[in-house]
Amino acid sequence: MDIIKGLQSLTRRFLVTKLENDQKLYTLSAVFKEYLRIYHH
């Protein structure tokens, strides 16, 4: 349940985007990806 709540929280803050396909998938926003690339090697 914590993972679901975490994804919902990130979605509300536009840090992840929910993709609607046959499956429910999420993708990281470009800004969040860049932050992770720079600060979390």
Topology (elements, then pairings):
Layout: H1 2-12, E1 16-20, E2 24-28, H2 30-39
Antiparallel strand pairs: 1-2
- Could you give the order of strands across the largest sheet? 1-2
Return Rg in Å.
11 Å
For the secondary structure, the number of strands is: 2
- Structural class, please? alpha+beta
Summed up, the helix count is: 2
Poorly predicted ranges: none
Strand content: 15-25%
Shape: globular
- Main sheet? 2 strands, antiparallel
- Share in helix: 40-55%
- The ordered H/E elements are HEEH
Structure summarized in a few sentences:
By secondary structure, the chain is α+β, with helices and mostly antiparallel strands.
Describe the structure.
- The longest helix is centred in the first third of the chain and has 11 residues.
- A two-stranded antiparallel sheet has the order 1-2.
- The protein contains two helices and two strands; from the N terminus they run H-E-E-H.
- 51% of the residues lie in helices and 24% in strands.
- The mean pLDDT is 82.
- It has 41 residues and is an alpha+beta fold.
